[in-house]
Amino acid sequence: MSGDYVRIFDTTLRDGEQSPGATLDGQEKLEIARQLARLGVDVIEAGFPAASPGDLEAVQCVAGEVGTSGGPIIAGLARATEGDIAAVWTAVQPAAKPRIHTFIATSDIHLQHKLRMTREQVLQRTSAMVTYARSLCADVEFSAEDGSRTDPGYLYEVLAAAIEAGATTLNIPDTVGYAVPGEYAALIGGIMESVPGIDRCVVSVHCHDDLGMATSNTLAALQAGARQAEVTINGIGERAGNASLEEVVMALRTRPAVYGLRSGIDTTQLTRSSHLVAVRTGLSVAANKAVIGANAFAHEAGIHQDGVLKHQSTYEIMRPEAVGLTQSKLVLGKHSGRHAFRKRLEELGYTDLDDVAVEHAFNRFKHVADQKKTVTEADLEAIVADEVYQPPEVYVLHGVHVSTGSPSIPTASVTLATPNGEYATGAATGTGPVDAVFSAINQIVDLEVGLEEYVVHAVTGGINALGEVTVRIRSEDDTGRTYSGHGADTDIIVASARAYVAALNKMAIAAGMQPASGGAAEEGGGVEDEPIEAATAP
Ligand code: KIV
Ligand code: ZN
């Protein structure tokens, strides 16, 4: 299929979640899926349902809640087996527009060393499994894994068999990020010319970034006739990641004379989407990352600043507003009421919050407004992320006290409500106040844990900005799984404690511990009610 419209197939929740260190629970997947729908993606690949019952449930939930009529297509990934395909169908069926995405490797390297199958067997499996998928679902995508390293003649045969069996989209992945733009474009061009029935299908591309060419390869393939780009927010994904959605979309938009192609993405939602994915996966974005990095629109050299002041086009090829990087507006003040607060949340797209969630967020907003006077859109998003979209609480943070300075030994005491309904206090020293707080928490929780990453950033400019902290921890048991947590507060030590406890709560739930109920946990009331001792140097 040709035309100038490029379908954006977002695989943040599937390939993106395969990034080392990124794990998302069902609630986080849903939150990101809602944002992807606001962003205007055409397809959300929500997961790999055969991987675990939890993944199946998460895809099912995205299909039911976000895949409503008028919403995006919801896809799930399946190996070319009946069991995987049936699991995807169970998961995506609630969507108004469900898709089954099935794949099998086609390169000789994979056939010989991984699948131990002959070319003929793979050809037959392709036909049989696409036929089976089509018997369940009208929208079937077939991927020839390691397509870019497959003998083109054989690839044409496999694709022709998939079309014959009813595939509606054909994807040619550069699975190991080996292709270079000219070669990949030639492969796609050859497919467009040589595969019988190709004009009835959408040709898709899926590029990995091992040589840093995922975006260039994707764009070259689109020029050669592909009309679906498989991408992720922030370019996260297996190993070096996937082509980044924001780069591909902004290249199409910024260079219309070169590409003559368009997407349905609302680019003003890019910054917000990027931030949400970074916070939820715990994978922070490099400051110099194209389009959405913190420095992407920062002009440091005097000569550049002078040029931009004289005329923006001297050194800016995109407007910051085009990617949603507007000066945060003052949205509400401390005298704003519940009604105005709820309305503003709805305008920001938070239409799914129940009364209890809004009440929690409102109380937190009042507290923040007291401290920082002007509450911006970005602050509101941080408040909602911190107050509403948190994992179930096994441990509840009740109080943090820190003494630090120079010269002195940073010392912290932390009180948590524990699962047995009691309060427990831990006290520790550390190399700094955050280290002391984490060590104090470790004294209370019954989990073996290592800190993998700690990132703090200011939500807005100014000395009274909310600080947002993301931590990633690794379970030191046999699973070695990682968990991320997020916290926001005007005090970064409190934000750090909130983030750490959130990550520990995810780990505790995964270890089979029950969320707290009753006793100290319910009286807790949250850390914001507690005074924080910000000690000065003795
Ligand atoms: O990289 C790849 O080949 C994939 C396919 C399963 C689409 O992710
Ligand atoms: Zn991939």
Characterise the protein shown here:
By secondary structure, this protein is α/β, with parallel strands linked by helices. The protein has two domains: 7-281, TIM Barrel; 396-537, 2-Layer Sandwich (Double Stranded RNA Binding Domain). Helices cover 39% and strands 18% of the residues. It is built from 18 helices and 16 strands. The protein has helices at 26-39, 53-65, 82-92, 108-115, 119-136, 152-165, 181-194, 214-223, 245-254, 256-259, 270-281, 302-310, 338-347, 355-372, 377-387, 433-444, 492-510, 519-523; strands at 7-10, 43-45, 73-79, 98-105, 140-145, 169-174, 202-207, 228-231, 330-332, 375-376, 396-403, 411-417, 423-429, 449-458, 467-475, 482-489. The strands form four sheets. Strands 1-2-3-4-5-6-7-8 form an eight-stranded parallel barrel, surrounded by eight helices. A three-stranded antiparallel sheet has the order 11-12-13. The longest helix is centred in the C-terminal third of the chain and has 19 residues, at 492-510. It starts with 6 loop residues before the first strand and ends in a 15-residue tail after the last helix. Residues 524-538 have low confidence and may be disordered. The structure holds 3-methyl-2-oxobutanoic acid (KIV) and zinc ion. Zinc ion is lined by residues 15, 173, 175, 206, 208, 238.
